């Protein structure tokens, strides 16, 4: 069984990898770990005129499914509310998109998959 410390450490490494990945793709990082009520948005970034809320899912193995498969409808609702609050609080006039960065990181290497407009796949 994996310890909670390992899980948290893996999650933090994943968020750092995702941040660097987005920076290399020309994103401007506005916030990391933005909290609103019970939600935490891993990364809020800007790409052109689009505000991109990024949920980072990191796993050490794809054995139990892809990292993005662990997003629950309740979590998506909370993330949408949090980003709505972020945009309104700052009076931003932007398009908003929700992406998922799915990372598999283990001793065999690191695989990063960037799913744009990821919430379109969820109901």
UniProtKB/TrEMBL annotation:
Pfam families: UPF0102
Gene3D superfamilies: 3.40.1350.10
Highest taxon of source: Bacteria
Listed CDD domains: PoNe_Nuclease
InterPro entries in UniProt: Restrct_endonuc-II-like, tRNA_endonuc-like_dom_sf, UPF0102_YraN-like
MF (Gene Ontology): nucleic acid binding
Family membership noted in the UniProt record: Belongs to the UPF0102 family.
Record's protein name: UPF0102 protein GCM10010831_01950
């Amino acid at each position: 069984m994996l310890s909670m410390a390992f899980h948290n450490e893996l999650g933090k490494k994943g968020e750092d990898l995702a941040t660097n990945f987005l920076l290399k793709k020309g994103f401007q990082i506005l916030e990391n770990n933005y909290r609103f009520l019970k939600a935490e948005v891993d990364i809020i970034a800007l790409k052109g005129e689009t505000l991109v809320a990024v949920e980072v899912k990191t796993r050490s193995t794809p054995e139990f499914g892809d990292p993005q498969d662990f997003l629950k409808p309740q979590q998506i609702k909370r993330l949408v509310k949090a980003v709505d609050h972020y945009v309104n609080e700052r009076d931003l006039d932007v398009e908003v998109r929700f992406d998922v960065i799915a990372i598999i990181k283990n001793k065999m290497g690191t695989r990063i998959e960037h799913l744009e407009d990821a919430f379109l796949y969820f109901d």
